[in-house]
Amino acid sequence: MVHSPADSTTSSDHPSTATVDGYQPQSASPGSSAPKVTILDVGGMKCAGCVSAVEKTLQACEGVNTATVNLVTEMATVEWMSPGSPEAFAAALTETGFPSQPRGDDDGEASGDRAQQWAERKQAEERSQLKRVAIAGLLLVFSTLGHLKHFGLTLPLLSNIWFHAGLATLALGIPGREILVDGWRGLRRGAPNMNTLVGLGTLSAYLTSVVALLFPQLGWECFFDEPVMLISFILLGRTLEQRARHRAANALQELINLQPARARLIANPDQAAAQQRTVDVPVTQVHSGEWLRVLPGEAVPVDGVIAQGQTTVDESMLTGESMPVTKGADDSVAAGTVNQTEAIAVRVTHTGAETVLARMIDMVETAQTRKAPIQGLADTIAGYFTYGVMTVAALTFCFWYFVGLEVWPQVIDGALGSAHMGHTMTAISSNLLVSLKPAIAVLVVACPCALGLATPTAMLVGSGLGAEQGLLIRGGDILETTAKLDALVFDKTGTLTQGQPEVTDCVAVVESLNPDDLIQLAASVEQGTRHPLAIALQKAARDRQLEPLPAEQFVTTAGMGVKAQVTWRNATETVLLGNADWLSQHHIAWDTSVQEQVAGLQQGKTLVYLAIGAQLAGIFAIADALRPDAQAVIDQIQQQGLDVYLLSGDRQQTATAIAAQLHIPAENCIAEVTPAEKVTAIENLQGQGKRVGFVGDGVNDAPALAQADVSIALHSGTDAAIETAGVVLMGDRLGDVLTALRLSQATLSKIRQNLGWAFTYNLVGIPLAAGVLLPSSGILLSPAVAGGLMAFSSVSVVLNSLVLRYTFPRASQDLAPAPKNANR
């Protein structure tokens, strides 16, 4: 059978680079051990300052190459080499005040199990925090009732100042105790955090009120309600923030929930369903090679291949495609997909952490850990934020006490209000109180949490939204780079095309023959052959329900064609099938009219000639057809301003014809290249200052995928794609490339909005709390109002990230659907 080198394969196979949790460690020098990656569960982190402290502690440990910490998921990913050890890293963090433990792989614990434990731990923390909020809320109600006396309603006991002192003491001692203790620990270990600022603010307000209560001759105002309100607002804000964070991470939880807990073992899949005995066992006890029974409506417990039965399967959790896929014998099914119509027997191929679902969970979890480079500035500032705020608070006090009140003495009455406990204050005592109030407000209003939450919450929503739509993005760094791409390079075969050659034209040269006759003869000569062009001819015969004819005496010449004796129309004929040179060797010629037909068919197609005896009988044109959505996707990508390139190992003529159909400029079509030359082509584009993304099948394009700034793989080669690509399109839809571009741009936009809000809030809120408007308008934030603003700042960042979930459209929904493929 004749074929061009590019028809059989466009690139040689290359093994994908193995990675751990999506990280590609730095290559080790000769004689050294390869870098390892460990995940640590880290407790005690409250804000971006804590994240910075944890990263610095880890980077100071012996053997650590890099350390990345996620505030939301409370995990640290450490790349390290000997003589370091996970136990040593965890011990160092624990000694610093962040209780930690390594996630061991020796026990075979799947990522889904780890994520499940994380979710359960978060739910327990949420319940505990709700209890504290309830207590703080009750104290706040009593405090508010006591202040009704300012409106003419005096309640026995509740209006007594000693009662309010007791309420404040309870608020600090019960729901606020954890904040004070953690803040003190952070200050003591040289890593002050959000709780340090809140603790200093609440204790300052409380102690000032205690002094005013015990020494009424000072004439100071008692504001015991301030600590109560502060604790209430902060706990309420953190509870709302935590619940919003869990909603942002619910895509991971939904993936976890897809994993069935139990499976039905069967002994023989060939028996009738009524005769099969099933044994209900935990999924963790299922092993490769065993058989399972999956009933309609049940989720498939593990990855496997259907051994018996035919059904439709809902693969939306895997691909994002809502339409079910028809599955039959020898078709693969993935854990978590839902069997819809008929009972099937499944032979187990992968279990535990090796299933596609477990790897998806692993990738989503990894994506939530890896930071976008845009977070770098926020991390740098967060490391010094708390020290800076304490310094600003001290300077605020000094300014007002030594300078401000001398220059603007009129602000004293406005700052103090009317509650002087019936005493006339001295100048010293009034100056002290007025100077304390803005200093306390500065401590409370500052919000490093917003800086710490800006990127991870947007990444949680973006990566989760992508997973729901069949997109797996490895992390914030990949996502940010995807949003900034200048050029997108597409592999041809299997990416822009179906990857399966098809008969597109069948021309009969002999009038007595029709296309069915020609296809039946060709398929008869090719029966038993697995060459791609032979498979295309065999498929064409099956589609037309044409049975192969008796044939014998096969003679095959590699790269030329095949000859056989075929029994047809009650006679045995010599049938030749191959290229033009093959027919010329057998002295078969054709006239000018046939040559004109050939010229019209050659654009982007492979021609196969069929002769009966010594006469040319027909011509087949075979091509790898474009995906239905290819042109629409390319057009929309070009409309976004990206340069689109086509790389192919196929002939220049074929590749140019494909590029023309897709409106790709001829100069952007690079053909007849080896895998190594594909890498060179990408390097040349990068040398021109372009950020380059490469879209391939993830199997034969590993070198090019590794070279590109962003590698995008369709799900055609599941194992290699998941290991190699930065973005995996689980739905095997080319339109999802466009979805990935738009999702990355939308998520990066949310990150920028969050960071902009976090910086703006602190740049405006801190000066406002420091009293910048006090001389001109008499406005001074009370500590309680400052605490409310601080809580609102953190919650608003998380809520802004959640908006993405409800506003992002599915970009590929208007494009032509990918063809149904039961073997996906």
Structure description:
The longest helix is centred in the N-terminal third of the chain and has 36 residues, at 111-146. The chain has a 7-stranded mixed β-sheet with strand order 14-26-25-24-15-22-23, sandwiched between helices. A 6-stranded antiparallel β-sheet has the order 6-5-7-13-8-11, with no helix packed on it. It has 824 residues and is of the alpha+beta class. It is 48% helix and 16% strand. It is built from 29 helices and 26 strands.
pLDDT averaged over residues = 79
Radius of gyration: 35 Å
Number of helices: 29
Helix content: 40-55%
What is the structural class?
A: alpha+beta
Highlighted features:
824 residues, alpha+beta, seven-stranded mixed beta sheet, six-stranded antiparallel beta sheet, 29 helices, 26 strands, disordered N terminus
Strand and helix layout:
Blueprint lengths: L4 H4 L27 E7 L5 H12 L4 E7 L4 E6 L5 H11 L3 E3 L8 H36 L14 H13 L3 H12 L5 H21 L10 H24 L1 H8 L4 E5 L11 E5 L8 E4 L8 E6 L2 E4 L1 H4 L5 E3 L4 E2 L4 E2 L4 E7 L5 H12 L8 H32 L3 H6 L10 H19 L2 H21 L2 E3 L2 H8 L3 E5 H5 L5 E7 L6 H12 L5 H12 L7 E7 L3 E8 L2 E8 L1 H6 L6 H10 L4 E7 L2 E9 L6 H10 L3 E5 L4 H10 L7 E2 L4 H13 L4 E5 L5 H6 L2 E5 L3 H7 L2 E3 L5 H35 L4 H4 L5 H25 L17
Helix pairs in contact: 2-12, 4-5, 4-8, 4-9, 5-7, 5-8, 6-7, 7-8, 7-14, 8-29, 12-14, 14-27, 14-29, 15-27, 15-29, 16-27, 18-19, 27-29
